[in-house]
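hiii, so i know i said id send this last week but things got crazy w the move. better late than never?? heres the sequnce for the chain we talked about at the cafe, plus the structure i predicted for it. fair warning i was half asleep when i ran it
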Amino acid sequence: MSQTATQAAPAGEKLDFKRVLPIFVIVLIDLLGLTIIIPLLPLYAAAFGANAFVVGALGAAYPMMQFVGAPLLGRLSDRYGRRPVLIVSQIGTFAGFVLLGLANTLWVVFLARLLDGLSGANISTAQAAISDSTTEKTRTQGLGLIGAAFGLGFIIGPVIAFAVLAVSDNNYSMVAYTAAVFSLISILLTVFWFKETLPAEKRGTATTKAGVGFGAMLAALKKPQVGFLLALMFMQQFAFGGFEQLLSLFTLNRLGMNASSNATLFVFAGVIIVVVQGGMVGRWSRQFGDRWLIFMGLLTVGVGLMLAAATPAQPVPWYSRAEVAEELSLDQSLPGETPPTENIQIALPEDANKSWLGLVWLMVAIVPIAIGGGVLQPSINSMLTQRVGKDEIGGTLGVSAAFLSASNALTPLILGAIFQWLGASAPFLIGGVILLALWGLARRNL
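okay and structure toks below
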């Protein structure tokens, strides 16, 4: 018996990739649809004449519905299993992308993002499936794979968007339809490949009835140790999410980068995230612990955001003000109205003073932002799963996803308004200050 125990122990410390591979692939394919759209969406809204605040409101539509849907889907997956919840939500995501492709007015774009956001809350279900398939020692690495899927998505998705824009002569609708194709593939993979990770005998076994919405979030905040981690998840995402949501507008205003140029920038960030979450976060977690990862993540993202805020206002060498303005109005004219080019609310830089300096500076700042952002979510969620019962993991991760989504909903509204009224650098500067303050608080309270 002693020999058997000795042999079994090391196995428990290694992630079973065969079990988590289907989840990883399905999440990756599903996220390709999202990452194809993300670099384009702010410019999509700007093409309809939206200013930075309205663009921020559009960015808030998706996470606002995730905030509503994530706890509910998490609880439903605890009760009925992960697989059926994934399938239903993926169908909604597919419908959202199709509607986005058909959009010819700004309100239809908003409707598409609301539908996709409600369906996109399935990430908490995928995280619960990962938790079902891992041990406490391998859970951070397993949850890191979800982040790695995001990273790969930010590499592959923008490349696909770049190719579609090139082939379709910058037709934004074709990018949305391409995202729908990948969403359909993820549905088929879930139906025919994914095996249920939560056995029937373990469903709905919680001793207390789990709530959803504000009640569940407030109850979770009152739990010792859990409450601070959830608050930390919310605040770090408020700062980091501002960078994600407003990067395309920042580069448009500061560097004159269009949709295709922004796609390549997202690829750069995605490569770093994949390296961190796919290969480093598990090793760092075992070597230093989740607490150290959280400290490191807060510090590096905070410093990176301060650097990004100081990016020199010098357009990239290939910038042409006339061409960017034309792209933003291409095929987006509303019937009976003047072309949105005449109403573009985001200030475009002049053609003078072109240089590589601004782009290189921003790419340097992205390195610590991507490294820190790559470790924060999996490490915080891993600590959360170790502080609740096994029958509460899905629901707790759903609440965590709701806090994340609530932050993502508020961030573009608040920081979008700050961008509009105080300038492009202000949101990143504020985010950096918040994260450095969180770093100090975490060291005292975590």
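btw The first helix runs from residue 2 to 12. thought thatd interest u
miss u guys!!
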